[in-house]
What we know:
The complex is a heterodimer of chains A (76) and B (252).
Chain A: E1 4-8, H1 18-22, E2 28-34, E3 40-44, H2 55-59, E4 65-70
Antiparallel strand pairs in A: 1-4, 2-3
Chain B: E1 8-12, H1 31-45, E2 51-55, H2 63-66, E3 70-73, H3 79-89, E4 94-100, H4 101-107, H5 109-117, E5 123-128, H6 158-161, H7 167-172, E6 179-184, H8 188-206, E7 212-217, H9 221-224, H10 228-242, E8 246-250
Parallel strand pairs in B: 2-3, 2-4, 4-5, 5-7, 6-7
Antiparallel strand pairs in B: 6-8
Amino acid sequence: MPRGTVRIDEERCKGCGLCIAACPQQVLGFSGELNHSGYNVVHMERPSACVGCAFCAMTCPDIAIEVYRQKVPAQS
Amino acid sequence: MQVETADMVKVFSRPQSLTAAKSTYCPGCHHGILTRIIGKTIDELGIAERTVCIAPVGCSVFAYNWYRCDAIQAAHGRASAVATGVKRADPNLIVFAYQGDGDFASIGTAESIHAANRGENITVIFVNNQVYGMTGGEMAPTSLVHQKTTTTPAGRDPAQVGYPIRFSEMIAQLDAPTYITRQALFDTRRILDTEEAIKKAFENQVNEKGYSLVEVLSTCPTNWRMSPIASNKHVADVVTEVFPLGDLVDRR
């Protein structure tokens, strides 16, 4: 079960690759698919490794990334 | 492919103070990161209803499209002067001027220096990418020695066109400014530092402390003829040698 995940707005992504370099878990990579503007958009290559740190989203100049984390179970 | 997020918590999303408009910046340009940081700051301080953006001339000329707040697009270089007028007309407004290096440190030199010298209670965001981006990559006053631009194809020759201006250091000589700092966006640590600095700069205005300037070293992958990742490395290794990071004035 991944601890986090990201949603990438493919139409906003300009394929600059800054998020790929920023990810400490090497989750992201180029998908090889082009969006309507012709950019090679980023996708999750290893979704199970995502920890939801949000470094990718912080670095994204086009604010194309939303980050989610698993809910922490309530302490008993 | 999108991942199922029903049982998850959203921890990062687009700031509410930003519109849904797509940016017109080139891939990898730091202007976009800075736009998000300013939007986040406006959200956190809850000042969207009384914030006025003064847009410059340059790549960020469309800044009025990104923020859900009032905006004026100033004549080239005059954003600090327009900000002064807006702030003096209604001191309850939170006014920020968003200016590039060609705008702030060249064409608007007089307006920029005198707004700082009067200690106007405004916030100025100064984006320094060492080049005129929008018009095609000409030399800016902040261009590095030997930097190749379209007007200095053999590299900037100081004997002919002088040395890069450290504008923040110049303004730091004045008695009036409250907060002057230089930040960068080439890695996550610097992005967090910039978030902190911009929040301080807006808080100073909310608390009526006076003039705040945040200079942000930014990349221009298109006109530098570098990839976005190589551009980040160039800022970290080369640009910060000429423009050192850190606070220059903090009189809060």
